[in-house]
Design brief:
Blueprint (H helix, E strand, L loop, with lengths): L1 E5 L3 H12 L3 E5 L2 H10 L1 E4 L5 E3 L2 E3 L10 E4 L10 H4 L8 E4 L30 H6 L4 E14 L2 E13 L7 H12 L10 H22 L3 H6 L1 H20 L8 H11 L5 H7 L6 H15 L4 H16 L8
Parallel strand pairs: 1-2, 1-6, 2-5, 3-9, 6-7, 7-8
Antiparallel strand pairs: 3-4, 8-9
Length: about 325
C-alpha cells in the first residue's frame, strides 16, 4: 500500500511517521525548513507513548511520488480548493482522499441516504463546488482526528495526547478500502476505528471547536480559562446546545451532554486552540469549516442559532481586521 501525505505538518508528519513505522510505503510532501530537516534526519516523534524516528521518502514535488492508493490531506480546509496542482500527480483511478480536517467536510450531505438535504452542497466549505472539483466526492474517506501534535522544531513533532483517527465512508459503508487503511494505521500504533456513523463523531468534536476556537481567538484565553470564567462557560454551553440541535437536524445523533463536553475541554488545561495559535502566527483563521458551515446548516435546517451567528460575525471581523493595517479601509 502506498500513502502520500500532502501537507506534512504536525498531524501529517505524525501520521506518516506512524504508518511508515507500521510497514506502509509513505511519501511526505512538505515545505521549506521542515522538508530539509526531515530529509536529513527523518521524522523525529517525541511522545509520552515513546519516542521514535521514521525515515519515509520526503519531497516537495508530488510528481516524484506518482499515483498513491491513499492521499492523506494534512492541509487546512481553506486550502483545499487551491491544492489541485499538487494533488493531481498523486491521483489514480481508485485513489482515496482522507481529509483530516476540523469542522464540516465538503462531502457532508453526499451519501446521506434518506435525508431531505442529501446531495446538497454546503457553500461555506465548497463555494461554487470548487472543493468538489478538486477533491471529488467518490474518493472521500472521512477522518475525525482526536490527536494533538505540534512541530517543536523543523523535523521534530511533539505528540501531546490522543492517537485516535476515526475513519468512515460518507454513505456509512464499512468498505474494504477503509478497513485496509485502518489496519495500516493500527500497525503503526494508532487507533483507527471504521465508523458507520462518522458524522456523529464529526459533531462531537465540532461541539468543542465551534465554541472554543472562535472564543479563544476573540479573548486570547486558554481552554481552562474559558471553562472557568462563568459567563464565558455559559456562552460555550449555549453555543454547544445550538450545535447539538443543528447536528440532529442535519442527520447526525451525537450522544454526549454539553456539560460532559465542557468538562472534557477543561481537563485539557491551559492549552491554546488551533485558531488562537493561527491568529498569533498571523495565519488565516479556519472559520468557514468550524463555525461558518454550522451557521449555514442552521439556516438550511431552520434551527435558530443566535449565539453561533453573533460569535461568527465577531470572529469573521477579527479575521478581516487582523489582516488590515491599522488606519486602512
Amino acid at each position: 500500500m502506498k500513502v502520500a501525505v500532502l501537507g506534512a505538518g504536525a498531524i501529517g508528519a505524525y501520521v506518516g511517521a506512524a504508518l511508515h513505522r507500521g510497514g506502509t510505503e509513505v511519501h511526505l510532501i512538505a515545505r521549506r525548513a521542515h522538508l530539509a530537516a526531515m530529509r536529513e534526519h527523518g521524522v523525529r516523534v517525541l511522545s509520552p507513548r515513546g519516542d521514535f524516528t521514521a525515515h519515509p521518502h520526503v519531497t516537495d514535488d508530488p510528481a516524484e511520488v506518482g499515483e498513491a492508493d491513499f492521499v492523506f490531506l494534512g492541509l487546512k480546509a481553506h486550502s483545499y480548493a487551491s491544492c489541485g496542482e499538487l494533488l493531481a500527480p498523486l491521483l489514480g483511478p481508485e485513489t482515496a482522499i482522507v481529509a483530516a480536517q476540523n469542522g464540516i467536510p465538503w462531502w457532508y450531505f453526499h451519501g446521506l441516504r434518506g435525508h431531505p438535504l442529501e446531495g446538497r452542497r454546503i457553500e461555506t466549505v465548497d463555494p461554487g463546488g470548487s472543493v468538489t472539483a478538486v477533491l471529488g466526492l467518490r474518493r472521500a474517506i472521512g477522518c475525525v482526528v482526536y490527536c494533538s501534535t505540534v512541530i517543536e522544531e523543523p523535523g521534530v513533532v511533539r505528540h501531546l495526547e490522543g492517537t485516535r483517527f476515526s475513519l468512515g465512508e460518507p454513505d456509512g459503508e464499512i468498505s474494504a478500502r477503509a478497513k485496509v487503511l485502518s489496519a495500516a494505521m493500527i500497525a503503526g500504533g494508532l487507533k483507527a476505528p471504521v465508523e458507520a456513523r462518522l458524522r456523529d463523531d464529526i459533531w462531537i468534536k465540532l461541539m468543542g471547536n465551534v465554541a472554543f476556537n472562535p472564543l479563544s481567538a476573540l479573548t486570547r484565553a486558554t481552554m481552562a480559562q474559558m471553562c472557568e470564567h462563568p459567563d464565558t462557560r455559559e456562552l460555550v454551553a449555549t453555543m454547544m446546545t445550538e450545535t447539538l440541535a443543528i447536528a440532529r437536524a442535519a442527520g447526525a445523533d451525537p450522544r454526549i451532554s454539553v456539560e460532559k463536553r465542557i468538562d472534557g475541554a477543561w481537563r485539557v488545561g491551559h492549552h491554546k486552540t488551533s485558531m488562537l495559535q493561527d491568529l498569533e502566527a498571523g495565519k488565516p483563521l479556519e472559520i468557514d469549516a468550524i463555525i461558518g458551515a454550522v451557521v449555514e446548516l442552521a439556516g438550511l435546517t431552520g434551527v435558530p442559532a443566535p449565539a453561533l451567528r453573533y460569535v461568527h460575525a465577531a470572529v469573521s471581523l477579527l479575521d478581516h481586521t487582523s489582516k488590515v493595517p491599522v488606519g486602512s479601509h
